[in-house]
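Lab notes, practical 5.
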Amino acid sequence: MGAQEFIIRQTGRNEQVAFETALENAIEEHGGDIYNGTISTCNSYQDVTAEFKRSGLDKMSFINKKLETANKRECFAIEESTPINNVNKIRSVVEHNIIKGTSKWELRYNVYAGWEDRMTQSFKTKADAVKFARQYTEGTKETTFVRMEKWLINQDPNVACIRYKQSPTEREGSYIFFGLAAC
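Output from the prediction step:
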């Protein structure tokens, strides 16, 4: 198998997040094949920002020089712009949802499937829930759980919404990832 050069610019709140985003984008666009010729064939990266600054070369010259000696599945990163984090004391806003009247609750038997714990169906009786869960498990071979839970039925169960409050000076960093991908 061969190697394919790649150069990608990606933003993120830090270098690791930007690298993971670049991997996810490559997998989404080109699939998860370990020989797809993209950054997703690399497991990690090496930050060469300090080496780049010391070299005195322009970006493309430095990248080309580094690629000449790179090994397959090797990835390097250069920080183009440093992220600026939110340093405000309060970084969130709370919106309260005022509940008027009496709350009405209903007992439900909810069927959850798999170890990722996703709810598949809800029933008013345990017998119906168990019947469905058995059919589901026998059909999919997935483990199911029946949970007894109370549901709020006459109003929105959300009593508050907390949103992130971005600082006007906050920004993500910009990074260039380059290297040799397996293909």
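Observations recorded by the TA: The chain has a mean pLDDT of 92. The two ends are 6 Å apart (CA to CA).
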